[in-house]
Amino acid sequence: MSNSTLTVGFVGLGDQGLPMAAAIAGAGYPLRVWARHRGSLEQLADTPHTPHDTLNGLAMSSDVVCLCVNTDEDVHALVTGGLADNMRRGTVIVNHGTGTPAQAIRIAAACRARGVDYLDAPVSGGRAGAEARTLVTMVGGPTEAFTRCKPAFLTFSSSVIHLGGHGAGELAKLLNNTLMMMNQANIADVLELADHFQLDTRALIDVLQAGSGTSAALGMMAAGATTTPPEMIAHLHEVLLLDMNLFEAAMRESDAPATTLIERGYAGAHRVPQIVETLSR
């Protein structure tokens, strides 16, 4: 299916969704957008797109509708609030947000009852990755729907990976987030020990980044420590805790043996301000 024959709808023009939508349009896909607040559409002034006054209108005119909203509850409300009922049979709804596998399965069932396919396709990389078009997109859902949508995902991603059925994309995202936070806990432990020995912290970071102890978490912490405003650090702290809440809920819901990962992940999320403070000296 060529770019000119796949019409993509988009809902959620926020910090990450806006550059994702712009990337889709920039690659030649007809872009349809709807927003609760018309002011949000002004950010697409320089991007080819067709705005819709109603969610139903967007649904009827789209082959694929990508959602980049805050919570599973927001996704479910959109899906059952007119989106799935007004899309043609065989079209696809895609959730790019972070949620739980169980909720992805429930939302997929609501879509299936209306003859619409569903993919959970959370992304990793934040706004910077969306702008650079280097997001990692993790997808759960039917292979045929994934194959149809993958070219559109590649407009904003450097890697698009199909992991299995509904919920697999969300599980992969939660595991990825938790591993990052576990790495942050390790970084905090190492820096605390370095302080005990009065080791030059910045020099140590240079060693760790160049050596086998490096990680994406270390790179992000080192790069942002001296340039990120305190209010952004506080926001990041809140976001990481929300991600851990989702991971814990998913593990409890499936009765998974994940106590160690949950505890270590929370430790990493809570200690981000400590890491930044140490690296900012």
From TrEMBL:
It comes from Lysinimonas soli. InterPro entries: 6-PGluconate_DH-like_C_sf (IPR008927), 6PGD_dom2 (IPR013328), 6PGDH_NADP-bd (IPR006115), HIBADH-like_NADP-bd (IPR029154), HIBADH-related (IPR015815), NAD(P)-bd_dom_sf (IPR036291). It is an enzyme of class 1 (oxidoreductase). Residues 7-164 form the 6-phosphogluconate dehydrogenase NADP-binding domain. This is NAD(P)-dependent oxidoreductase. Belongs to the HIBADH-related family. PANTHER family: 3-HYDROXYISOBUTYRATE DEHYDROGENASE-LIKE 1, MITOCHONDRIAL-RELATED. The keyword NAD applies. It comes from the Bacteria. Its EC number is 1.1.-.-. Keywords: NAD, Oxidoreductase. GO terms for molecular function: oxidoreductase activity. The keyword Metal-binding does not apply. Residues 167-258 form the 3-hydroxyisobutyrate dehydrogenase-like NAD-binding domain. It holds the Pfam family NAD_binding_2.
